């Protein structure tokens, strides 16, 4: 199962991105397509950096008040993934990256991830016992 997902991710996704880039290049031309890819990369990296700093400040506030910042740590991971997707050339990865930068979408993703983890715990697919090293 995991190998299939990895194969689709690392082989299928670049091929799909290339097909979309070529089609957009046919519609609007090569230079505008190239400019859009560069612009979304720069804009996305800037937005990811700003959103990352905002979440980092929130994590520091939570830690300063003695609370575990678990939800904000997950936000930070999603923002990191968004930044990587936005600097990766392609329109599909840009759409997913920009969605991950939006707090409401991240909240939906966290709820989905939580339900998936809970399902795996109920099926005993995840062992949550504490191991001391």
Give a written overview of the molecule.
The structure is a single chain. The chain has 133 residues and is mainly alpha-helical. It has one domain (2-122). 83% of the residues lie in helices and 0% in strands. The chain contains 5 helices and no strands. It is flat and about 55 Å long.
Protein topology:
Layout: H1 2-28, H2 30-64, H3 70-87, H4 91-101, H5 103-122
Keywords:
single chain; 133 residues; mainly alpha; 5 helices; 83% helix; 0% strand
Name the shape in a single word.
flat
Mean pLDDT: 88
- The number of strands is 0
Q: Which value, in Å, is the CA radius of gyration? A: 18 Å
Major beta sheet, specifics? none
Fraction in beta strands: under 5%
Q: Which residue ranges are poorly predicted, with pLDDT under 50 across at least 5 consecutive positions?
A: none
What's the total helix number?
Answer: 5
Question: Roughly what percent helix?
Answer: over 70%
Count of folded domains: 1
Run of helices and strands = HHHHH
Alpha-carbon distance between the termini?
31 Å
Structural class: mainly alpha
Concise account of the structure shown:
The chain has 5 helices and no strands. The chain has 133 residues and is an all-alpha fold.
